[in-house]
Specification:
305 residues, Cytochrome Bc1 Complex, Chain C, Helix Hairpins, 2 domains, 12 helices
């Protein structure tokens, strides 16, 4: 439950930085560190999700690790190396437990670096200006702001924890793992659902992984490939509308990721994935990359079966 709310805060922080264009110079390396933290968090959370060894945990490990079989030539060898054998078993669980224990230390190092870079460049502001003078002191303004956020966060957290502890989880994970019984509908945790929807929108394993990689790398390299002259969207109504529509598309992808792989969810997933990249590329003004991706995605959807 703590992890679920932790990801909620991280996603809100990510969209807040997109809204205020916090990835632009001189904060580009701060953004890169933040994206590295997000990717490492996703990996650590996935490893931890497998550890209860319930039905959803077992089949999530099977499905996700099997994606590496799409790697040309060495895919099968990579999967066997990840499993520690020829199937997801005790050796896999031991490896995932060790990594789940060790990765948070690397995560802590990245967080410390992230805070140091933030201290050097400072936070952005609604005006999009970069000033080394006339900064707001931490106390008492930010202390009051942070205390208010903490109280609101823990109020919602306690309410969900005490009254609806299973609202964001899947009841099948209370069933002990059984490799002979496949759940009727395998779904990841809610914070993976948008990525899962993008992955399954392409009817080809390698194509789906490629599109998913582009979706993540597009955000990762955003400060270095952006052509926009905007420093803030405070003065642009069209930019604000596009941003909130982009947020709505991400929410729709999360909803589609939790639905069965059948009509009309597959077709809707392909449409919204296309719109996701269109508004992502258009919103941040790297149109040439969009046209390249448009040709690639169209080819993957309609020609590769």
């Amino acid at each position: 439950m703590v992890l679920l709310f932790f990801f909620l805060c991280v996603y809100l922080h990510l969209f807040r930085n997109l809204y205020f264009c916090s990835y632009l110079k001189p904060r580009e390396f701060l953004w890169v560190l933040g994206m590295l933290i997000l990717i490492l968090m996703i990996l650590t959370a996935f490893l931890g999700y497998v550890l209860p060894w319930g039905q959803m945990s077992f089949w999530a490990a099977t499905v996700i690790t099997s994606l590496f079989s799409a790697v040309p030539f060495y895919g099968e060898m990579i999967v066997i190396w990840l499993w520690g054998g020829f199937s997801v078993d005790d050796a896999t669980l031991s490896r995932f437990f060790s990594l789940h224990y060790l990765l948070p230390f690397l995560l802590l190092v990245l967080i410390i670096l992230h805070v140091l870079f933030l201290h050097d460049s400072g936070s952005t502001n609604p005006m999009g200006l970069y000033l080394m003078t006339d900064k707001i002191v931490f106390a008492p303004y930010y202390i009051y702001k942070d205390l208010f956020g903490i109280v609101c966060f823990y109020g919602v957290f306690m309410w969900v924890l005490f009254y609806y502890p299973n609202i964001l989880g899947h009841t099948d994970n209370y069933i002990m793992s059984n490799p002979l019984v496949t759940p009727t509908h395998i779904v990841p945790e809610w914070y993976f659902l948008p990525f899962y929807a993008i992955l399954r929108s392409i009817p080809n394993k390698l194509g789906g992984i490629s599109v998913l990689g582009i979706a993540i790398l597009s955000l990762f390299f955003l400060p270095f490939i952006i052509f926009s002259s905007f420093r803030s969207i405070t003065f642009s109504i069209g930019y604000k509308f596009s941003f909130w529509f982009f947020v709505l598309l991400c929410i729709c992808l999360g909803w589609l990721g939790g639905n069965p792989i059948e009509y009309p969810y597959v077709e809707l997933g392909q449409l919204i994935t296309w719109l996701y990249f269109f508004f992502l590329f258009w919103l941040f003004d790297y149109i040439l990359i969009f046209f390249f991706f448009f040709v690639l995605e169209t080819f993957l959807i309609y020609t590769i079966k």
